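Lab meeting, item 3. Inverse folding demo.
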């Protein structure tokens, strides 16, 4: 009996972070639900016990069912016929297990049938599901779309749709089109309002994850004659009403259990969510931030799986009379994999806590007026969430790909064969740095916080925290990395008058910020438990070299050399 929660102490470590007490108290409105719902917690300890028990249920389903089915799902894949997408047989078993366990709509309020979980423990569940089968996470994890309905739909829509999600109906977000990938302003799916005030959708969407879901959030052009984001609105479509067919599903490299669909809308009835013209400007931005946090969790889960597969093989594989894990060339790879895994997980849960804090305050503000101190806190955490979300998605997905690559390398020739899970892990990992915004787009989102000082200010806050004497040397290294980062930012800012120079250096600056912040976070982790000490040492050694490499490039680069990089 495998359990992906109890076999991974790192999850319990992040669940018990000191900020969680405030998060839970705010989320539970001082535990007011205990008077109405017999399963609602009465205090902080009761809430944490509830999270712990539910996460153990998730871990058991992931270890005993979802992970066991992963190879079968990968081989069978999803299929398409008669205008519908069909899950692999074992995917249906996975969905049935999570539905019966009440694990759909985990973050939704209890009045809609949810568990009222904060983002942080919900993301832990996503971490485990992704370790079990990254493709299944793309079905189960899309329950996160319900958050957008909760935030922006009217009360009638919430009462009709959210209980269905909590009961186990699936969701999708229909954004991308054949001519509108990352540039969502170019979306042309047409939304037409009829004389009776109702709406219908006509057009095509492509690359829609779980595109034959029960409930769809759809970005469509509601304002005739417009061509930019100001003409787009958000709609909810109910599959039971018909009007949408699956033209085909993509034959993908990985995550094959998740049907990625091309959809044809033909007078499909739908409902406007929120206000017209805010579909992209407000609602999709909120939706994408949640999705990007989910992909960061997916990346961490895949990294965990890759590391464990590599470690297990290295302990068993014998060469020259001994296990290959005894060779420095192998155990160094494993140590760096573990360092990157722990670093990305620390960043993921720091980001999740920031998201929790600002979202809970935002929700409370709909019930009552926030105090000046609460509004100040909400603004502070909102800025941090905005800064850390692209950092977590971008860097965790890159580390995920590197760990999947190294997992195959540890396996040698065997890793290239379909006899081992690492081949599937490698294929599944590749998409994480592409969908929900490529790494390059995450850099675009993050660079603003480089130049406005958000990341540097946060580094200084980490630096101000006391550490045990045995960690002073690592703290000094991280302090030097912070200074190198600040100096590099100044150098690039000084050259901003050269067109394209700042954009050219953006990825280097964002990586310097991310690697340094990860180091500070892991140093903080070690103050609560020594379990991360080796990972901290390995990661900081690696990150120090990477930061120095970027700093050296920025220092020596002349903006006049930009022309050499531009294609002729």
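The presenter then showed the designed sequence:
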């Amino acid at each position: 009996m495998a359990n992906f929660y109890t076999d991974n102490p790192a999850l319990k470590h992040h669940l018990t972070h000191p900020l969680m007490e405030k998060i839970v108290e705010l989320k539970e409105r001082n535990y007011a639900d205990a008077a109405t719902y017999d399963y609602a917690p009465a205090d902080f300890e009761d809430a944490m016990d509830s999270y712990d028990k539910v996460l153990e249920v998730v871990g058991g389903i992931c270890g005993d069912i979802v992970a066991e089915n992963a190879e079968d799902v990968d081989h069978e894949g999803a299929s398409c016929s008669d205008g519908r997408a069909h899950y692999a047989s074992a995917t249906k078993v996975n969905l049935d297990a999570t539905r019966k366990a009440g694990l759909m709509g985990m973050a939704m309020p209890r009045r809609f049938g949810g568990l009222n979980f904060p983002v942080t423990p919900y993301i832990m569940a996503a971490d485990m599901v992704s370790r079990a089968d990254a493709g299944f996470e793309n079905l189960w994890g899309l329950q996160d779309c319900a958050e957008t309905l909760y935030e922006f739909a009217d009360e009638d829509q919430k009462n009709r749709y959210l209980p269905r999600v909590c009961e186990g109906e699936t969701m999708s977000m229909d954004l991308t089109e054949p001519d509108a990938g990352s540039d969502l302003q170019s979306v042309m799916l047409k939304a037409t309002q009829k004389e009776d005030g109702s709406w219908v959708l006509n057009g095509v969407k492509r690359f829609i994850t779980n595109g034959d879901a029960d409930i769809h959030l759809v970005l469509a052009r509601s304002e005739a004659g417009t061509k930019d984001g100001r003409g787009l609105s958000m709609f909810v479509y109910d599959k039971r009403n018909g009007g949408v067919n699956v033209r085909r599903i993509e034959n993908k490299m990985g995550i094959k259990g998740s049907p990625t669909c091309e959809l044809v809308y033909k007078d499909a009835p739908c409902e406007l969510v929120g206000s017209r013209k805010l579909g992209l400007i407000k609602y999709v931005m909120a939706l994408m931030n949640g999705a990007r946090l989910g992909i960061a969790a997916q990346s961490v889960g895949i990294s965990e799986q890759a590391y464990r597969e590599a470690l297990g093989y290295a302990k068993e594989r014998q060469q020259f009379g001994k296990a290959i894990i005894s060779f420095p060339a192998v155990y160094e790879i494993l140590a760096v994999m573990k360092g990157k895994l722990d670093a990305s997980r620390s960043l993921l849960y720091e980001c999740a806590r920031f998201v929790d804090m600002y979202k809970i305050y935002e929700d409370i503000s709909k019930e009552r007026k926030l105090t000046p101190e609460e509004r100040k806190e909400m603004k502070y955490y909102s800025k941090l969430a905005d800064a850390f979300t692209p950092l977590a998605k971008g860097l965790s997905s890159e580390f995920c790909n590197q760990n999947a690559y190294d997992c195959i390398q540890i396996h040698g020739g065997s890793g290239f064969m379909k006899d081992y899970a690492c081949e599937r892990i490698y294929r599944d990992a590749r998409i994480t740095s592409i969908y929900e915004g490529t790494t390059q787009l995450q850099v675009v989102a993050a660079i603003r916080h480089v130049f406005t000082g958000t990341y540097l200010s946060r580094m200084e806050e980490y630096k101000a925290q006391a550490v045990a004497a045995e960690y002073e040397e690592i703290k000094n290294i991280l302090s030097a990395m912070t200074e190198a980062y600040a100096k590099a930012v100044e150098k690039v800012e000084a050259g901003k008058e050269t067109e394209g120079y700042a954009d050219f250096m953006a990825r280097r600056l964002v990586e310097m910020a991310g690697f340094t912040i990860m180091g500070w976070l892991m140093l903080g982790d070690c103050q609560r438990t020594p379990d991360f000490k080796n990972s901290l040492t390995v990661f900081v050694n690696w990150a120090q070299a990477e930061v120095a490499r970027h700093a050296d490039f920025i220092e020596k680069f002349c903006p006049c050399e930009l022309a050499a990089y531009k294609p002729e």
